[in-house]
Design goal:
With 428 residues, this protein is mostly beta strands. It has a domain of 288 residues: monomeric porin ompg (Porin, Beta Barrel), CATH 2.40.160.40. The protein contains four helices and 17 strands. Strands 1-3-4-7-8-9-10-13-14-15-16-17 form a twelve-stranded antiparallel beta barrel. The protein has a two-stranded antiparallel sheet with strand order 11-12. The chain is globular. About 15% of the residues have low confidence.
């Protein structure tokens, strides 16, 4: 082979090798490491304006947890942080961003117990200012255990006319008049969370005349005592009321002490419970109460059985067996407190008393008429004279009746609280 051909062949082999090396170097420079950010091109570089394929954003990302060692590399935000916010530009939360602290959600309320500690605590922390309260409706709620208070009622009954059997009104019989003044003490003591002792002593003065025979004097009225149990404590978040039942015993102290009262007659309709003078009696019933600022709602019902006894009734001579019909009493009231601090408020009270034509002992009533009804209504005002002495007053006005006397009953009461619970006076 000639020397020329040998040179050409040698150059061709070397050229191929050189071209191959150039190709490899070019390929290495064009490869983008996903862990690195390519250096920004110079402003004078033609690629600034002529580059047709700018680097893709995808090439700037890197797998979580890798750390770049390239001096120009900038740390990217952690996946949980989301993209960095630019000034003046609102950014939506990154789908993988950590959620803000969970908002406090209102736990589902569990129903309060009927009369347990949870129900009592909820009731004690609701609106319930101390006020004079209604004149004729004992309250369904009980005093705290160990707390004692007393209330003095002053009633006066002025007989003005009489109701006929059909509900009409006629004048009083010739030579008849009757005025009664009653001082009633109502003392309460909290035996337990839901039990209360009631003591109802009273004095009565009577000024009357029947068929020209006067009956005047003052003495002990029939004495009533008993216990009240609260079955349900009102729920502040619903219309569930407080519900309680009393069991009362009335002793015939008017007979024992010779108090001048008409045998078989009735004290003022306001008395709790209203029983026939001189007759032992047993009373039960139902009390309701609900506080709903600024109102309180009351409802009471009593059922009284008078034990038959011997005695002389008006218009008769000699003793006889006296069998009374049972008595039903029903009372309703609504109170609005205008000022919680002073206890200033107003109450509208409705009172009803019915003599039933039967008795639960099965013996027919011996008195005539055998049944009667009385209904009356009173506006009452109340005010706290001191932080512990409450006052209320009103006039009970007749509304309807039959077979009984029509009377107007002015009255007022003073209610004083003794004791406290943990140094704080607690209302019932």
């Amino acid at each position: 082979m000639s020397p020329e051909k040998m040179l050409v062949r040698t150059i061709g082999r070397r050229g191929i090798v050189v071209l191959l090396l150039i190709f490899l170097v070019q390929g290495r420079e064009g490869y983008a490491d996903p862990a690195q950010t390519p250096p920004a091109p110079s402003a004078s570089s033609p690629s600034v304006t002529k580059a047709k394929n700018p680097p893709k954003k995808k090439a700037l990302s890197r797998p979580s947890g890798r750390v770049s060692t390239h001096p120009s590399a900038k740390p990217s935000p952690a996946p949980s942080e989301g993209p960095a916010a630019r000034p003046g530009v609102a950014t939506a939360p990154h789908p993988t961003a950590a959620k803000p602290a969970a908002k406090k959600t209102r736990l589902e309320k569990h129903a309060l117990s009927r009369n347990g500690a949870d129900a009592l605590d909820a009731y004690r922390h609701t609106w319930n200012p101390i006020t004079g309260g209604p004149e004729f409706l004992p309250l369904a709620d009980t005093l705290p255990e160990g707390e004692f208070n007393a209330r003095m009622f002053f009633y006066s009954r002025f007989t003005e006319a009489q109701y006929t059997g059909s509900g009409g009104i006629t004048s009083l019989p010739p030579g008849y008049y009757q005025t009664q003044l009653l001082l009633l003490g109502a003392m309460y003591f909290g035996l337990s969370t839901n039990d209360e002792l009631l003591l109802l002593p009273s004095m009565i003065s009577t000024f009357s005349s029947t068929n020209g025979v006067n009956l005047d004097g003052t003495g002990f009225n029939d004495f009533t005592f008993g216990i009240k149990h609260r079955w349900v404590i009102q729920d502040p978040d619903s219309w569930r009321p407080s519900i309680s039942t009393p069991f009362l015993v009335t002793l015939p102290t008017t007979t024992w002490f010779g108090t001048p009262v008409a045998k078989g007659g009735l004290p003022p309709i306001s008395v709790v419970p209203s029983t026939h003078f001189g007759s032992p009696a047993f009373t039960t019933g139902l009390f309701l109460r609900k506080n709903r600022k600024p109102f309180r709602f009351f409802g009471d019902f009593y059922y009284t059985f008078n034990v038959p006894n011997s005695g002389v009734v008006s218009g008769s001579s000699g003793k006889q067996l006296i069998q009374y019909g049972d008595l039903a009493q029903y009372r309703m009231g609504v109170e609005q407190v205008f000022n919680d601090k002073t206890g200033f408020g107003g109450i509208l009270e409705f009172v009803g008393l019915s003599g039933l034509p039967f008795s639960i002992d099965g013996i027919a009533p011996t008195l005539h008429p055998t049944a009667f009804n009385l209904m009356a209504m009173q506006p009452t005002i109340e005010y706290n004279l001191t932080p512990r002495l409450m006052f209320s007053a009103g006039v009970l006005l007749p509304v309807f009746g039959n077979n009984e006397y029509l009377a107007v009953t002015p009255n007022f009461s003073l209610w004083y609280y003794w004791g406290a619970v943990d140094g704080k006076l607690m209302p019932r």
